[in-house]
């Protein structure tokens, strides 16, 4: 049997959708590792034979099948051999739209109806083997965020719910959860990922603090959407609309976690939810092992977003305290990202999508005023006056505060 190469997966799907093709993956049928080595391919795989094309460095895998032998996404044995057919290789893939191949002559190989589901805009599992890998739930949710006008086939939803009930989701390691969640947050409509995970019950297992937000009421005057969970989805999509970075999107995901812990007597106002949310944002960040910059911004936004919203009425002294708590002078980029997350929070409300958010430019102007203070000159003047140690720091603080007072006077004229 001679070796044949097929373009597979996302490259075929995206080409059929008329989307730009990012990565091109190939499957070699009728080959063994030695055949690829003899053709100059470079081996890179550890768990199963994967190679890189010697010129293009595109990934080529031997056609393979998988057999479930244990719990979780690692519990598989892989069989890669020349006798594995293309149809058998495609059968182990997650969704029909990802289980198509293109032959060298351009013809489409579509044994599981992927093209039909692309046209119908349906996300559907290829076979019941879908239940064997819990990562597929995360991947499907991520694809729902990318292709936001696609629906999930009812039979696929049933399979996902069964997987959750069977405890398969509990076997997911945090690093893999974050890998898929972070990619889903960066898609065009990240709210769909959360909706799909919630619908099948996975969100309650992966992030119960997030799941608890749904059904929690808020004051209609400030939140016409009322439901805290619905507000969260709107905020995430606002982040996508302004093409916010991952740090801001994760902070948005965590900003209202404290509302899920509001005592019944305090509903629907949620006093103190910002402080209650800080340990919850910290806990979710640690549980998913998110990068430090994501964790730090999430905690900062949870703690300070109410203060930022209220900052239009702040005195210069109160402004100064906010900027100092946020470490804005040393971390100006993070401070600006916090303000963007707060703006998305305000606009992530039904009917308020175009609402002005003057707090953001005003606080950036305040930061610029602090940055303009010549601290070297202030220090030199203080030293010349005989001041030492903490007294010099106080002189710098006062100079910065005076800069804010001057700015406030100018803004009020």
From TrEMBL:
Q: Does the keyword Cell inner membrane apply?
A: no
Q: What cofactors does the UniProt entry give for this protein?
A: Ni(2+); Mg(2+)
Domain HD: start-end pairs: 228-329
Q: Does the keyword Hydrolase apply?
A: yes
GO molecular-function terms, A-Z: CCA tRNA nucleotidyltransferase activity; hydrolase activity
Question: Pfam families, per this entry?
Answer: HD, PolyA_pol, PolyA_pol_RNAbd
In terms of superkingdom, the source organism counts as: Bacteria
- What does the record give as the reaction this protein catalyses? a tRNA with a 3' CCA end + 2 CTP + ATP = a tRNA with a 3' CCACCA end + 3 diphosphate; a tRNA precursor + 2 CTP + ATP = a tRNA with a 3' CCA end + 3 diphosphate
| EC numbers for this chain | 2.7.7.72, 3.1.3.-, 3.1.4.-
Key words of the record: ATP-binding, Hydrolase, Magnesium, Metal-binding, Multifunctional enzyme, Nickel, Nucleotide-binding, Nucleotidyltransferase, RNA repair, RNA-binding, Transferase, tRNA processing
Binding positions for ATP?
10, 13, 93, 139, 142
Q: Quick one: which residues bind Mg(2+)? A: 23, 25
Enumerate the residues binding CTP: 10, 13, 93, 139, 142
Q: How is the cofactor bound?
A: Nickel for phosphatase activity.
Q: Known InterPro entries for this protein?
A: CCA_bact, HD/PDEase_dom, HD_domain, NT_sf, PolA_pol_head_dom, PolyA_RNA-bd, tRNA_CCA-adding_enzyme
> Which proteins does it associate with, and in what oligomeric form?
Monomer. Can also form homodimers and oligomers.
Q: What family name appears in the similarity comment?
A: Belongs to the tRNA nucleotidyltransferase/poly(A) polymerase family. Bacterial CCA-adding enzyme type 1 subfamily.
Q: Domains: what does the record tell us? A: Comprises two domains: an N-terminal domain containing the nucleotidyltransferase activity and a C-terminal HD domain associated with both phosphodiesterase and phosphatase activities.
What is the recorded function of this protein according to its Swiss-Prot or TrEMBL entry? Answer: Catalyzes the addition and repair of the essential 3'-terminal CCA sequence in tRNAs without using a nucleic acid template. Adds these three nucleotides in the order of C, C, and A to the tRNA nucleotide-73, using CTP and ATP as substrates and producing inorganic pyrophosphate. tRNA 3'-terminal CCA addition is required both for tRNA processing and repair. Also involved in tRNA surveillance by mediating tandem CCA addition to generate a CCACCA at the 3' terminus of unstable tRNAs. While stable tRNAs receive only 3'-terminal CCA, unstable tRNAs are marked with CCACCA and rapidly degraded.
Note from the entry: A single active site specifically recognizes both ATP and CTP and is responsible for their addition.
State the protein's name. Multifunctional CCA protein
């Amino acid at each position: 049997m001679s070796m044949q190469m097929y373009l597979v997966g996302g490259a075929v799907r995206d080409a059929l959708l008329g989307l730009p093709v990012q990565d091109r993956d190939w499957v070699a049928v009728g080959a063994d590792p030695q055949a690829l080595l003899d053709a100059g391919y470079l081996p890179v795989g550890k768990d199963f034979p994967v190679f890189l094309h010697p010129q293009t460095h595109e990934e080529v895998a031997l056609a393979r099948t998988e057999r479930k032998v244990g719990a979780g996404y690692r519990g598989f044995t892989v069989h890669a051999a020349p006798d594995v057919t293309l149809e058998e290789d495609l059968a182990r893939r997650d969704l029909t739209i990802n289980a198509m191949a293109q032959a060298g002559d351009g013809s489409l190989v579509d044994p599981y109806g992927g093209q039909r589901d692309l046209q119908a805009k349906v996300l559907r599992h290829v076979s019941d083997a879908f239940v064997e890998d819990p990562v597929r739930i995360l991947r499907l949710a991520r694809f729902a965020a990318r292709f936001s006008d696609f629906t999930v086939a009812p039979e696929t939803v049933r399979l996902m719910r069964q997987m959750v009930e069977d405890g398969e989701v509990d076997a997911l390691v945090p690093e893999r959860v974050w890998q898929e969640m972070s990619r889903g947050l960066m898609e065009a409509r990240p709210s769909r990922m959360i909706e799909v995970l919630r619908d099948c019950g996975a969100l309650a297992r992966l992030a119960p603090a997030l799941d608890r937000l749904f059904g929690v009421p808020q004051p209609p005057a400030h939140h016409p959407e009322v439901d805290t969970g619905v507000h969260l989805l709107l905020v995430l999509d606002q982040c996508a609309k302004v093409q916010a970075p991952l740090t801001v999107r994760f902070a948005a995901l965590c900003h209202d976690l404290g509302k899920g812990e509001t005592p019944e007597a305090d509903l629907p106002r949620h006093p103190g939810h910002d402080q209650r949310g800080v340990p919850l944002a910290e806990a979710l960040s640690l549980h998913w092992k998110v990068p430090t910059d994501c964790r730090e911004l999430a905690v900062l936004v949870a703690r300070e977003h109410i203060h930022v919203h209220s900052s239009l009425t702040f005195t210069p002294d109160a402004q100064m305290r906010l900027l100092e708590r946020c470490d804005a002078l040393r971390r100006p980029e993070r401070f600006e990202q916090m303000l963007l997350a707060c703006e998305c929070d305000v606009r992530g409300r039904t009917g308020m999508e175009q609402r002005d958010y003057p707090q953001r430019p005003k606080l950036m102007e305040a930061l610029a005023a602090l940055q303009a203070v010549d601290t070297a000159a202030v220090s030199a003047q203080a030293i010349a006056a005989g001041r030492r140690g903490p007294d010099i720091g106080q002189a710098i603080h006062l100079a910065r505060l005076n800069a804010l007072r001057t700015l406030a006077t100018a803004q009020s004229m």
